[in-house]
Amino acid sequence: MPNKPAKKLNANSAFSYACTRCSACCVNKKIQVNPYEIARLAASCKTGFAAFRAEHTIDGVFLKQKSDGSCVFLGAGGCEVHADRPLVCRIFPLGRHITENGKVYYSNPVWNPMPNGKYGKRGVVQDYIEDQGVVEFASFADAYFKWYCKARDYADGLDENGELFEYDDLLNIDAVIGRYGNINSFDQSQNVAERATLHLEILNNLLKEV
Ligand code: SF4
Q1: What is the domain range of residue 193?
Q2: Residue 47 and residue 82: Cα distance in Å, rounded?
Q3: Where does the pLDDT of residue 167 fall: very low under 50, low under 70, confident under 90, or very high at 90 and above?
Q4: Residue 92 neighbours by CB distance under 10 Å
Q5: Phi, psi torsion values for 202, nearest 5 degrees
Q6: Which of 65, 70, 79 has most ligand 1 atoms within 8 Å of its beta carbon, as the pocket-test mutant?
Q7: Count of domains in the chain?
Q8: Last-in-domain residue among 133, 161, 179
Q9: What pLDDT score does 185 carry?
Q10: CB of 85 closer than 6 A to ligand 1?
Q11: Whole-prediction pTM
């Protein structure tokens, strides 16, 4: 965790960072994952959404850590799910933040310990994050955050039959699509982005009904 408040940066702020694979981003970090990220990781692990959450997360929201504080996916050769690693891992050592009115900004925290990579000012924040392949991740992170802001006051109890459908269950892409989606149009082979888009569509429609 950062040990000092970080300075705010914007997309045009000078920044560059050359990773040396020191794995500082993978130890003693609380990695929060949204449904899109869970679905990506579940596919990477060749398991289902619910099984992934049960096996690899705490409360379905944070990636588990090993006893030494390292991420459950940190192996001898580095991240074992590198192609599907979550947004916060991609943009490390930067932080990405979004306000409730949709304004995005970045931070460059003073980490403890600091990573061994080379910090510089050869580019700008936007260059750095684009290099990390974050566009789809950021888009879904923002969409889920926007839904969460709207839903947090009445997320529980949305079931139209009067049964309690917990907020936690609403984050399960497959359960929500299975329960509320048009089954005829849902193909299990749909890719993660298509399923997450459908999930968000259903979640947002549910909000219109309450
Ligand atoms: S998912 Fe990969 S990159 Fe992210 S903390 Fe875990 S091991 Fe590190």
Answers
A1: 138-208
A2: 17
A3: low
A4: 21
A5: -65, -45
A6: 79
A7: 2
A8: 133
A9: 55
A10: yes
A11: 0.88
For residues 129 and 142, membership in a common domain is answered with no
Assess whether the previous peptide bond of 113 is cis (omega < 30° from 0).
yes
* Shortest-distance Cα residue to atom 5 of ligand 1: 26
Q: Is 73 in the pocket of ligand 1 (CB under 6 A)?
A: yes
Q: Dihedral (C-alpha) 194, 71, 67, 54: value to the nearest 10 degrees? A: 0
Q: Which atom of ligand 1 is nearest to the CA of 71?
A: 6
- For ligand 1, whether the C-beta of 203 sits within 6 Å is no
pLDDT at 50: 92
User: Which residue puts its alpha carbon closest to atom 4 of ligand 1?
Assistant: 89
Q: d(Cα 210, Cα 208) in Å, to the nearest integer?
A: 6
**Residue having the nearest C-alpha atom to atom 1 of ligand 1:** 85
End position of a domain, from candidates 133, 162, 183: 133
User: Does ligand 1 lie within 6 Å of residue 96's CB atom?
Assistant: no
What pairs with residue 124 in β-bridges?
A: 14
Question: In the block, which residue shows the tokens 């850590």?
Answer: 65
Q: Is residue 12 part of a domain?
A: yes
CA-proximal residue: ligand 1, atom 8 (nearest):
26
